Amino acid sequence: MTQPATTAQKEAPTSAAESAADKESSRRPLGLRWDVRSLSLLGVLAVLVAVGGITAPDEFLATSNLQLVLTQASVIGVVTVGMTFVIVSGGIDLSVGAIVALASVWATTVATQEFGFGGILFTAVAVGVGCGLVNGVLIAYGRMVPFIATLAMLASARGLALQITDGRTQIVTVDSVLDLGVRDAYVLGIPPLVLVFAAVTVIGWLVLNRTTFGRRTVAVGGNAEAARLAGIDVRRQRLYLYLLSGLCCGIAAFMLIVLAGSGQNTNGNLYELDAIAAAIIGGTLLSGGRGTIVGSVLGVLVFTTITNIFALNNLETAVQQIAKGAIIVAAVLVQRRSLRGGDA
């Protein structure tokens, strides 16, 4: 008589937690719900396109330039998808740029290139996942603060990348890899890297919004202790999330190899800041518990378009950085105001 009651008691908290997570996910902007923030980002993107069309109509609106913008957005966009998951869980990953650099140079060594396309792709992904594993173990089981653990990984990965290359650029000689970056490889005018970005985005959206893994990620970010009491293995969930972030870095590293045709220890410079900024202006809370893949992707497109417009108009990089900083500040202020409004 007591055993069924005990089983029911064990299952009740988990069911309650999943029910609460379902209600929370339906209430929060986690999917393709065009809330005010998403519409605002679309409006900002439309304004930027109009500005680009007015200031540099021949260059900006050219098909080749639009393809370039989407291609450049694809690399940092894949990293941002992984970063969004980490931030939604209440964590942070400052090492994504360094992991991209390490994966790209490790995958372009002479020894690796001897294994051809498969060897380069496997090495890039394996290095990314390996670094994510180290981050996850240190944070989840070593109980290190994410900021410190990933900062240490940033320094270590950058140093190792520099040691591997000795400061030199490693040229890719595998034709099957380089061919992905040429115009003949485009599918209906769409670069292959953009298709990869689209696939990662769709998969990321489905995982975050339509799976138990996504609901657990939101639950851990909202209240880790409540999630633990509800039966969620918080440490294992965090480990998986940093593995996911590392996987995205490995994919991005391979995409960067295709785009640049080389591996350099300076690859992925400031990617961590761009990914965090894109996620924030897209509506992801730095404190965790809320986020949207769609918003993060729109944030990436906004920043990439700004960079392209500034480059076409020969404006200084310093002005570009100031503009990005202003957008981040404005996004955080809007975010805080919406939170206060929700509390009220």
Distance between the termini: 47 Å
Total tally of structural domains: 1
Shape: globular
Number of strands: 2
Strand content: under 5%
Structure report:
- The chain contains 16 helices and two strands.
- Helix content is 76%, strand content 1%.
- The protein has a two-stranded antiparallel sheet.
- Helix 5 runs parallel beside helix 8 (146-165) and helix 11 crosses helix 13.
- The protein has a single domain (31-338), classed as ABC transporter involved in vitamin B12 uptake, BtuC (Orthogonal Bundle), CATH 1.10.3470.
- It is globular, with a radius of gyration of 21 Å.
- The chain has 344 residues and is an all-alpha fold.
- InterPro entries: ABC_transp_permease.
- Its main location: membrane.
- It is found in: Cell membrane.
- It comes from Streptomyces griseomycini.
- It is a multi-pass membrane protein.
Layout: helices, strands, pairs:
Layout: H1 2-27, H2 36-55, H3 57-60, H4 63-88, H5 96-107, H6 110-113, H7 116-141, H8 146-165, E1 170-171, H9 175-178, H10 192-210, H11 212-222, H12 224-229, H13 234-260, E2 262-263, H14 271-281, H15 293-312, H16 317-343
Antiparallel strand pairs: 1-2
Helix pairs in contact: 1-11, 2-15, 4-10, 4-11, 4-13, 4-14, 4-15, 5-7, 5-8, 5-13, 7-8, 7-13, 10-11, 11-13, 14-15, 14-16, 15-16
